[in-house]
Amino acid sequence: MKIDHSIRHWALDKSFLHGRMSFICGPRQIGKTTLIQNHLKQSDSLGNYHNWDTMTLRQKFASNPLFFIENLPYVISPGIKIPPGERDWIAFDEIHKYPKWKDLLKGYYDEFKDSLGFIVTGSARLDYLRRSGDSLIGRYFLYKMHPLHPNDLVNTAFDRASAWCPQTVSIPFRDPDRAFQEATAHLYNLTGFPEPVSVGTKTFYERWKNNHISLITGEDIRDLSKITNIQKLQTLVFLLPERVGAPLSLNNMKQILGCAHASVQNWLEALKNVYLVFSIPPYTGKLKRSVRKEVKYYLWDWGISSDPGKRFENFIAVQLQRAVSAWTEWGMGDYKVMFTRTKDGREVDFVITESNAACILIECKKSDKSLATNIKYFKDRLKVPLAFQVIDEPGYLKQADQGVFIIGVDRLLQILP
Predict the structure, then answer these.
(1) What is the pTM of this model?
(2) Among 110, 280, 300, 307, which has the highest number of CB atoms less than 10 A from its own CB?
(3) Rounded CA gap, 186 and 198, in Å?
(4) Dihedral angle, C-alpha 254, 259, 265, 266, nearest 10 °
(5) Per CATH, is 164-415 categorized as 3.30.70.1350?
(6) Between residues 319 and 222, which one has the greater pLDDT?
(7) Which H or E run includes 53?
(8) Does the pLDDT at position 338 exceed 80?
(9) Which of 367, 348, 394, 240 shows the shortest CA–CA distance to 309?
(10) Could you tell me the residue ranges of all domains in the chain?
(11) Closest alpha carbon to 150 in 173, 122, 182
(12) How far apart are CA 14 and CA 84, in angstroms?
């Protein structure tokens, strides 16, 4: 199965970067290295990919700090100006493992920014470390690589300029073809990570999943935090799937795990930093008696959830996170995924906001085609123009009210980037 990540159409678009470096981060094994290597192959410049995790590269750097210009087909020196579209890419993978990587990268960029394009990739540690200090501010754009979308599997021609976003009045509903529907089902039934998706069997995924969790909760957590009680942290990971879709009670977690409230908070923050989970906060608007402090947690790998309903909601949550990241990275606005809930139990699963104004409501119902009453309730009170009730029925589409649609998950994903 050929995978073509849509993110390349903006994170690796020289005209879109305007000379800045492209920082691409995301979960482990999400396909960052493959994305970059495939992109370089297209211009016959795979030799410009440099992995700082290898001894060979470290030896090259020790003998020549400007080793990366050796493979270029032309002589280059500081001060030479090359049009952005004609510049060669230089890709640095795992450069954050070099002790003074920010200063080194700043020097490279300042010296060659008019003649080379730089791609910097890494997972949790790159995203975590880049936030400390400001030596690179104004020199890069950050892009987050998310789990797969059906478009990444069917190799649909992507045009960012015509892609739908919530600012667009009309919604480009189309009948999903069979390939798109099969890709949607394939992802939902497995995961959004390339290797198990390519193998395509549940048995391989189960083995891959256990290895993936162990790698993240062991190596990545160790590198990024001072957490020593890895066993309890791993227990927390296994407790989270059954709590997907509901505000997480930290008091309940501390009682189960037998630890302090602060420990649970620290562990959850660490799991977010290593891209194992993500949280969505409550949206209140002007609602009275709304929940303001409770947070919901979801897994980047929705396949971990065994309950069909929770997996379905988790699947939608990841795809919405992917969409708001894309819209924000394109410069369309400041989009976020949130949820809304009142103290008397009324709730809608997801609220898409732009600059803190609600613009879309999404409710996940798996198989219920009758419109949820909470959609109408929150749509009227929050003055939201658009609402979707998403069900797991291929091709389904029904307009239930003005701006309110009951829609199959494949149709929803077809309008999301």
Answers:
(1) 0.94
(2) 300
(3) 10
(4) -160
(5) no
(6) 319
(7) none
(8) yes
(9) 367
(10) 8-145, 164-415
(11) 182
(12) 6
| Helical packing angle, 178-189 and 308-329, nearest 10° | 110
What single-letter DSSP state applies at residue 402?
Answer: T
Which one is the CATH code of 8-145: 2.60.120.460, 3.40.50.300, 3.30.200.20, 2.30.40.10?
3.40.50.300
pLDDT of residue 392: 96
Residue among 168, 195, 286, 297 nearest 237 (CA): 297
User: Alpha-carbon distance 387 to 362, whole Å?
Assistant: 6
Q: Could you tell me the CA-to-CA distances from 325 to 33, 89, 130, 205, 316 in Å, in that order?
A: 20, 24, 18, 26, 14
The H or E element spanning position 100 is none
Question: Of 34, 335, 364, 329, whose CA–CA distance to 188 is shortest?
Answer: 364
Residues 227-243, mean pLDDT to the nearest whole number: 91
pLDDT-derived band of residue 71, with 50, 70 and 90 as boundaries?
confident
Whole-number Å distance between alpha carbons of 111 and 89:
15
What pLDDT shows up at residue 190? Answer: 95
pLDDT at residue 362 in the model: 98
Read off the amino acid at residue 133: G
Q: SS3 of 286, please?
A: coil
113: region left, alpha or beta (phi > 0 left; psi from -120 to 50 alpha): alpha
Q: Which two tokens stand for residue 74?
A: 């032309």
